[in-house]
Amino acid sequence: MALQMAAHSFEQVGELRIHPSPKRVRAFFGGRPIVDTTQAIVVWEPRRVVPSYAVPLVDIDAQLVPATSRGGEEHAVVIGEGPPVLDPSTGFSVHTTPGQSYDVDVGTVLDQAAFAPEDPDLQGYAVLDFAAFDEWRDEDEVDVVHPRDPFSRVECRRSSRHVVVESDGEVLADSHAPIMLFETLLPTRYYLPRADVRMDLLTPSDSRTGCAYKGFASYFSTATVPDIAWTYLDPEHDAAPVKDLICFYNERVDITVDGDRLERPTTPWS
User: Partners of 138 in the beta sheet?
Assistant: First the structure.
């Protein structure tokens, strides 16, 4: 039997997974570098699909104080046919492996912003809450949202396939010039020229989301479906080809490609 790579990846999702990073990693707060290391480790706690950085304690220029508060709610989701996993809306303070949580005192106390797993491969390290710091850099590039997963990628491909997008039987887009965006373990996304989209049916919303690989997205709603589509006005370089194009949630609309209607996938955005 051939090995199905996506299924194989999900088989390990219940384990504590680590991967050494060859990059110089820095974290800043209040304009001051709190972390500066070339020995970072990318860490996925059990059931997490988004990684964090673990850094040597000796490379943290702050005081770590055992946290007295603890907790938070888990938000489990299913991606495709995989097992339930924790999506990024599950806060950093929720941990799925034994260890000790710490407050990080940088002059300001960052509540539960560090976690030292008991695993011997992470002895002398602390996993840090990406969102607690003002800025992260790998080498001299700014990271956004979370560390980049070295086993995930984003690939954009121009296509001439015929893509039709409908909602409740109404055509929202009809294009022969999509850019198809392929992202590890996620559905194919179809980014369409605005000239091929019924922009008169879309209203900008106040929603914004961030992606470590694509940047920050702005959203559109229809009269009946909120946040049905999005665009990247200033994408990260991985997603530069889709700048200003419109993409609809496969999970919330009916998409037909070359005459074949796609099934709506099961993802955190369903």
Answer: 25, 141
Number of Cβ within 10 Å of residue 7's Cβ equals 11
The Cα angle at residue 78 between residues 263 and 255, in degrees rounded to 5: 20
The closest of 44, 60, 74, 54 to 116, measured between CA atoms, is: 54
Please state the length of the chain. Answer: 270
CA 127 distance to own-chain centroid: 18
CA distance to 42, 53, 114, 219, per residue, from 20 (Å): 6, 10, 18, 36
- Tens-digit pLDDT profile for residues 231-256: 999 998 889 999 999 999 999 999 99
Strand order through the sheet with 135-138: 32-37, 25-29, 135-138, 141-143
Give every CB contact of residue 214 below 8 A, 6+ residues apart in sequence.
154, 232, 235, 236, 238, 239, 242
Is-contact 38 75, C-beta < 8 A? no
pLDDT, residue 220, reads 98
What is the phi/psi pair of residue 59, to 5°? -100, 10
Residue 9 token pair: 């990846």
Paired sense of beta strands 109-117 and 99-105, if any: antiparallel
Structural tokens at position 242: 């889709």
Residue 136 is encoded by which pair of tokens? 């992260």
Return the pLDDT at 157.
Answer: 97
